[in-house]
């Protein structure tokens, strides 16, 4: 028997073959990024799970030991769990498994990056808002058919720019086509992030 989608989640049907996998930040939930997803692509289906970890009552996608210090065993386990959820949800909702674009913010961007590195077959593209290097995989994945947009805040107090750049380098070494932009902003998203992501989805992703 195939696994059922076992995350609390929202699914909104679309008019095109694309599905945006929406991954919220710490303290968010499955409803948070639905308006952003619609703004980025009015026609895509939206699949939005809620992270299963609770940190002081705040949902997240994996455990951390301190800010920016991740529990790597938990991160690996949760990454596979999320990837398996996407496969099960694709089956249940009849969405095209070959046209899934992750849109992650902060903790959600970090698990999306981890999924690119550990389960490179799942995502055809990813938009990572405020991401850092989540882990270094034992084996370099092959991401030669994957496009990634990363946007970062140049005065983000939570995400070190050096770690964002390490992620860019790792993804590029794996063959991904990575666009990175730093904006004059902190950890919160600004309109520049959304405008660029919308344009990038239209022009750079099939
Ligand atoms: C993380 O824990 O994934 C990052 O530190 C971002 C955050 O959620 O604060």
Features:
two-stranded antiparallel ribbon; 7-stranded mixed sheet; 206 residues; binds D-malate; alpha/beta
Strand order of the largest sheet: 1-3-2-8-9-10-11
Estimate the mean pLDDT confidence: 96
Structural class: alpha/beta
Low-confidence stretches: none
Instruction: Name the helicity range.
Output: 25-40%
Report the total helices.
5
Q: What is the tally of beta strands?
A: 11
Largest β sheet strand count, sense and barrel closure: 7 strands, mixed
Measured between the Cα atoms of the first and last residue, the distance is: 33 Å
Beta-strand share of residues: 15-25%
**What coarse outline follows from CA principal-axis ratios?**
globular
**Which distinct ligands sit in these coordinates?**
D-malate
Series of secondary-structure elements, N-terminal to C-terminal? EEHEEEEEHEHEEHEH
Give Rg in angstroms: 15 Å
